Amino acid sequence: MSEADKVPSQPDPGSVPSVPNAVAEAPPVTFMVLFYSATGAAVAWFTDAGNAFLREYWWAAAVAVLVFLLLVNVLKFKQWYIGTTAQMRIGLIVFAVLPALALLVACIVLLPAAYRVAAMRGVFLAVVCLLPATMYYLFIVTRKDSLLNEFIANLDRLGLLQPDRLALHAEKGQGSYEKQALGPRLRVETFVQRFEAVYGPLANRDEFVAVLLRTFDPGSSGDERRWPRRAVGFTEVFSVETAVPVIIATALIALGWLMVLPPTLTTRVDIDEALRSSLDPIAGPVGFAFLGAYFFTLQALFRRYVRRDLRASAYVAVCMRIVLAVIGTWVVVQVAQWAPNAIAGAPTVPAETLNVLGFVLGVFPPVVWQIVQTALRKVTFAEVALPSLSSQLPLSDLDGLTVWHESRFEEEDIENIANMATADLADLMLNTRIARGRIIDWVDQALLYTQLGPEPKNGQVQSPRLALRAHGIRTATALLAAYDDSSRRGDLAVFEQILQNAEDKGRSRLRSVVDAIVTAPNLELILTWKGISRNA
Q1: Fewer C-beta within 10 Å: the chain N or C terminus?
Q2: How far are the Cα atoms of 89, 224, 379, 391, 446 from residue 376, in angstroms, in the given order?
Q3: pLDDT in tens, 318-330
Q4: How many CA within 13 A on the CB side of residue 501?
């Protein structure tokens, strides 16, 4: 080894300092803060108010200094924490962090009586205001590395990456497949762009697209046609743009909770009673509307967190729900005050009823329109000018679809069964993170219900859905499979009488429904997913 090799390398003056160097720059800042704090305390000591405050709350100043010193050394602590074992980290959290938090909350009893209620409310407000944003942070840092791999697997099972299984709809009549070089590249790049629009840009994107294009090469081997398994990193997902909706939603939530539980000092003589009622809300209909919106929001965010679907768009929906709940409650309160004077016989609505109604509006904002329509029904020609917001084919008619799923699908512009029947399956699987089998089943049901139409309101008319259910048919592919099997067995004429009524004559209604279902754009994808092949 030469002498030059023994000389230690010097750091580049223009380089960014490492973590230890950054920590080394902290002592001057610490000295400045402590110096000015000590100077301010010395000045306050020679004033009557400042002297009394320091004598009574010296412990608070000591805690503030301790917290500051801990924050200054957070980088050093992080460097040490990374080097510890998993057992030591768990022990630190269980035996140090959690007891410290419990002790900090228990210190509320050491405060003067007038400050205890405000402190209890402050702790509660800090938790409920930061909980939604905390879920987003935990979702980002604990994201699994299989999002892209799962999306590509779904595309492959749908047949969108297998030209030998799925023909282009535009060329289906000619029986030819997508063989041109431009077609597969545009398709693959479109799907990759969709993923990037949701989860951020991909590293080595061109190389990834090139590997996916091998799936369209029938001469490539199985290993060559296998897509690369890669991870989606934290920096590829999190950005300032995605954090803005979370910040705005947190601000709205904080404003709402401050309206419901203002952290004011208590003037009550009975301190024990004041502490027992410290979490009692002080709010009217608008405050309860916020509580309803928060009630729905917290459950919706938790469900999306569990499904790994908690993206920034969810917090845009949170902001919309809170704002719509407040505006809707304003309108309903005005209707409640106007109706007794404008409509003869209209009862006066008590304040408690308005509070409960405000909570319901926060959970279900569309109820506002129903209340307005009901109030204006007795006013001449007023109801004619108001359009109906109810659908003849609501999503709630689909088996297994709950109000939480309805709320999620509204974000994807799917508001009724007809929208579900024509939805983009790849986008639904990518954006909603709902179980793939459920999405396929709901779209399959929607294909059938769209052709059958809405349920008859007259109870004497036979329901086509119930007639098919009696034969175990609840989806479009189940109807097609049963139709083909009946044709092979030779009892097709009897099978086609399932939907016939006594007054029906001529062509079978069931045959017309089958012919209409075959034209549905998503049918080919669902048949490919389920591995069903038709005779015709």
Answers
A1: N
A2: 63, 67, 5, 20, 34
A3: 999 999 999 989 9
A4: 7
